[in-house]
Amino acid sequence: MPTYRTHLLVCAGTGCVSCGAFAFKDALEKEVARRGLGDEVLVVATGCNGFCERGPILMVHPDGIFYQRLTVEDVPLLVEEHLLKGRPVRKLMYVPPAAGAPVPKMADIEFFKHQRLIVLRNRGRIDPEKIEEYIAYDGYEAAAKALANMTPEAVVAEISAAGLRGRGGAGFPTGRKWDLCRRQPSAPKYLICNGDEGDPGAFMDRSVLEADPHAVLEGMIIGAKAIGAARGFIYIRDEYPLAVSRVSIALQQAREMGLLGKDILGTGFDFDLEIVRGAGAFVSGEETALIASIEGQRAYPRQRPPYPAQHGLWGQPTVINNVETWANVPSIIRRGSAWFSSLGTETSKGTKIFSLVGKINNTGLVEVPMGIRLRDIVFAIGGGIPKGREFKAVQIGGPSGGCIPKELLDLPIDYESLTQAGAMMGSGGMIVMDEDTCMVDIALYFLRFTQEESCGKCSPCRIGTRQMAAILARIAAGEGSLEDIKKLEALALTVKQGSLCGLGQTAPNPVLSTLRYFHDEYLAHIVDRTCPARVCKNLITYFIDPEKCVGCLLCLKSCPVNAISGERKKVHVIDQAACIKCGACLSVCPAKIQAVMKTTGEEGRALVGEIPARTGP
Amino acid sequence: MAQKSRKTGPSGKAPLADDVDAVVRGVVEKYGGEKRAIIQILQDLQERLRWLAPETLEAAAKKLDVPPAHVYSVATFYKSFSLEPRGRHLCTVCMGTACHVRGGTAILEHFERKLGVRAGETSPNREYTLERVNCLGACALAPLAVVDGRYHGQMTETKANQLLEILTGPSE
Questions:
Q1: Which residues of A touch B161 (CB under 8 A)?
Q2: Cα–Cα distance between A116 and A135 in angstroms, integer?
Q3: Local confidence band at B5 (pLDDT 50, 70, 90 cut-offs)
Q4: Which residue spans of chain B are classified as CATH 3.40.30.10?
């Protein structure tokens, strides 16, 4: 194998690819060759680096220099300066939002500094399409150890002692699940990797599958040994084509190397895996529904118990774990349970990956030790809220989770503390919200989501979520009553207690948690007919301030429904009856003019003459 | 509807009934005729034929030796299957939470107005299909729109107009 003095690691995760990472990589390869550096410098496409906000990203190894927001035009300068003259290019480096000097090294950037990588240990440093690179970083060492030197009991004991819990949502102890399945007398047994990552705003599973597919394969080989399975399935969401392609390549390479198939590594152990693509149904992330989907049925959940570990795929004992859970397994076997359980809190061990998205400066994927404070994630790693806005809440756990308000920013994050706070670990989506996010609107968003995704098998979920969404829509429209809050609470309880599967049982959480922490906002919508965040369309009014308007025609031209009248250099007026409140006028009104105003409640209604303006004191 | 669409497929020449049978046979055989692979089979068929016409579903049922009702039950349950012809261009707007808090709904409404169709619909001339998706996992790019498979992040009304002008422009 040839050696190179420098490796240029180009992130090729979905985020960066969407921003043109492949075009950048091609240009980089050409320029490297053109400048005669082909024998010294290797361009590598890696999996997701995590700092998606800054894509396309390039890491120079071994210097540790981090370049961001690159374009094809940056290539000649980069090659000339950094690779030929040894002068890192400051203007392509990351500058923290608080301003200041560029930070050259990746390890010094706040976003990366506080992270602790176990599952994502190979992110941004290996080519996920080359098994050799995974092996070079201790890959398949744990599988070899488990297959050659450990009994199934010992593997299960190690996972149990590590305290690993399911990373897909509920946090069930993985060792206990494996043990239950191992003890079943029935054969054959199956393994499933749940990669049907449906929570909107969560993309860690996609990233793991894209950046380090072999970690999942290795985890499953170890799991197969533990429970005695010969066949496994990796179920991947249809919306993740890149993940499907990388896992297919990984399976192929693992088979060629004798790491999958018959007589793995000469140990006499047989195991093979296949990919099953999902077809766009949120409920198929629920384990019994996912099993039905693999069987070629509609993804309907069923009553538990019996649990899949006893009665799963085709009625056989089946262990089903989430992508992130599987990817934790090799490190635990390789480095030992004591090492793993030294990280985290009393009840939640190891690390957790969160996707930090929404109104946050540093959008991306972060892997942090359990027990870290929410404040550290949002402000130290995430770099706070953009545009100097005020932090309002973090929504954790997707449609099953809840909103954590700023009073709880010092909450140490683990399974129990989140549940107590009315949220849920879920798969780890963290959506940051600022003062411009309306909590009633968010509750409505999630209820509409679950209502649409409810499979309809049980009535509490099917009917309950619809009724809750209808009440929320009424409140958001300014037509709610105080009675509605009581109805919401009663319905929430029924849906929680009466639903068949996790989808329905957790669907009311977004409503309950916003009612708990943002009761005032509900009251503002109901009593004052005001949307404090100025989001709910029925309660906001756009108005052009005649004192400020210079008659530039910009808003008039941008209005999709021609609701604005006026002429050049004359004050423009919005026809309130025609206005659809899309906000196009506000977004085009020049910052130095600021004539278009978005108002709510009485203030807005007074401006447009719907109610008489309040006279001064 | 179905008859007509077969003659006006996206590629200009849509498969005839014989071709549908041949395509179905090929795809089903690829999966060894296994009934459990029905979701994968329908996905492959949709990829080849762009949508699942009644005759495609019936041919698949016959080939797999399952009742047509079963094939329909699966095809109607999962969202990625389209039982109506799709347009030549596919616009998808992400409605994930990150996109939602950054104004994704306004973007979807803008596409709806511009294309004159609601989400999930195809324009009468079969040029455009507009769809919404729950989350594409590219939240750093929010709000996100995908036009013919290409991701376009930090979407605004102005950017959307530019994208649509390329599609609707005189180039066709």
A1: none
A2: 21
A3: very low
A4: 89-168
